Amino acid sequence: MDESQGLTGIDRALADALDVDVSPEFAARVRRRIATGPAPSRVRWAWQLAAAAVAALVIGGAAIATLSTPRPAAPAPQSARSLPAESPAPAMVHPAPPRAAATRPQAVAARVPLPAAATAPLSASAAEVLVPRAEIDMYRRLFAAARTLPPAIVANVEQATVVEPAVSEITIDPIRIDLIAPSSGAQGDRR
Amino acid sequence: MVNVREWAQPLPIVTSDEDARQDFEGRLADSSALVFRVAYSVLRQREDAEDVAQEAFARAYRSFHALRDRERFRAWIVRAAWRLAIDRVRANRRRVAHEQPMDVPPDGHVAPDVDARARHDHLWAAIDELPEAQRLVTVLAAIEGHDIKEVSRLLDVPEGTIKWRLFAARKTLQEKLQWMNPRD
User: Fold this and answer.
1) Which of A10-14, A122-126, A165-169 is most confident?
2) Looking at this predicted complex, what is its ipTM?
3) pTM of the model as a whole
4) Residue from B23, B25, B32, B140 whose CB has the most chain A CBs within 10 Å, to mutate
5) Domain that holds residue A8
6) Which among A20, A82, A122, A167 is least surrounded, fewest beta carbons within 10 Å?
7) How close A73 comes to chain B (CA, Å)?
8) A170 vs B170, more confident
9) Which candidate from B33, B65, B66 shows the least CB-CB separation from A22?
10) Would you say residue A140 lies in a domain?
11) In total, how many domains does chain B have?
C-alpha cells in the first residue's frame, strides 16, 4: 500500500468519525437560548452609547461651571515681603578690600538698604521682588556681623627684590666649515 | 484567485430587525451541521458539542448587527465554535475522564485484532497531539468534503499556508497511525 492510499485511509477514518448529524431540535434550542439570553448587541450598544453621552454631558457641564466661577485671590504669603527693584541685590555686595576695612561698616550700610528702608512704600512703577523671610533674616545677621567685625588684618607683604645676575659678555665662536674630500671610487673619480 | 466581481457586489441591505432575523435564520440552517461538527471534533461528545454550537450561534446573533460583511458569517462562527470548544475542553479536563486521549504505542503499532473503538480512540489521540493550527485544518478538510480553497476561506488564511499545514498534519498522522495502513 503506497503513501497516498495510507493518507486516504486516515482521511476516510477521520471523515467517518466526523460524520455526525446535529439533532433536529438544534435550531429550536438555539432560538430558545437567544430568547432567554441578553439582548442583541445593537440594543446594548445603544444603551451604552446613551450612558456615555450623558456622562460626557455631566463632565462637560461640571468643567464649564468650574471655569466660569471666579477664583478667590490667593492670600499673600506671610513669610515674604517686597523689596524695591532699585535696591542692590544682596549678592552684589562684595567684601571691602583690606585697605578699606576700617570704613567697611559704613560702606556696607550705604550700599545695602536698611530694614527700615525695606518697609518703605514702593513706587507704582517699581517691580516687586519677593524675598523669603528666612533669606532676609540671614542677610540681617550677615550685615550685623559685618558691622561688629574687627578691622581686617592687612598683611604688608614686602616686595621681594629679585636681583638678577648681570649679563656677561656673550662670545660666539666662529663656525668653521671644512671641505669634504671625495673618496676614491665615488663621483670624484668620474670624468 | 479572488473574484473581484464577487467582492464588488453590494451586501444585502438589512432594513429592519425582521430582515435581520430572517437573514440569521437562513445562516443558522446553513451552518448548523458544520458548527456542530467542528465542536464535536474537539469535544467528541454530542451533548457538549451541541451546547457549544448553540452558544456560538447565540453569541453570533447578539453580534449579528455589528457584523458588516455577513458573507463571512460562516467563517466567523466556525472560529468562534472552535475557540468555545477548546475552552470547554480545558474546563472539563479534570472531571471528564473519557476525554483524555489514550496512549499511542511508541512504535505506532497496535495488535491486528484491535477493535473499531480502539482504532477510533487512537485516531483522535493522534489528532489531539497535532498543533492547534494543523488540527483545525485537518478537521475542516475532513468535514463536508471541504477543499483547500474552502478551508482557506473559512480560516481567512492563504491557501499555501493551508496546504503546508495539511501536508504536515497528514505526515504526522501517517507516522503515528501506521497500524491503520499496514504495509504488506
Assistant:
1) A10-14
2) 0.70
3) 0.51
4) B32
5) 3-68
6) A167
7) 54
8) B170
9) B33
10) yes
11) 2
Cell 544682596 -> residue:
A90
Closest CA to A78 of A136, A121, A139: A136
Domain of residue B38, residue span: 16-99
* Residue B83: inside a domain: yes
**CA gap A42, B67 in Å, rounded:** 11
Cβ neighbours, 10 Å, residue B19: 12
pLDDT (tens digit per residue) in B145-178: 888 999 998 888 999 999 999 999 999 988 888 7
C-alpha cell at B84: 468555545
Distance (Å, whole) CA B152 – CA B74:
12
- The 10s digit of each residue's pLDDT in B15-67 is 467 777 888 888 888 889 999 999 999 998 899 999 999 999 998 888 887 77
3-state secondary structure chain A: CCHHHHHHHHHHHHHHHCCCCCCCCHHHHHHHHHHHCCCCHHHHHHHHHHHHHHHHHHHHHHHHHHHHCCCCCCCCCCCEEEECCCCCCHHHCCCCCHHHHHHHHHHHHHHCCCHHHHCCCCCCCCCCEEEEHHHHHHHHHHHHHHHCCCCCCCCCCCCCCCCCCCCCCCCCCCCCCCCCCCCCCCHHHCC
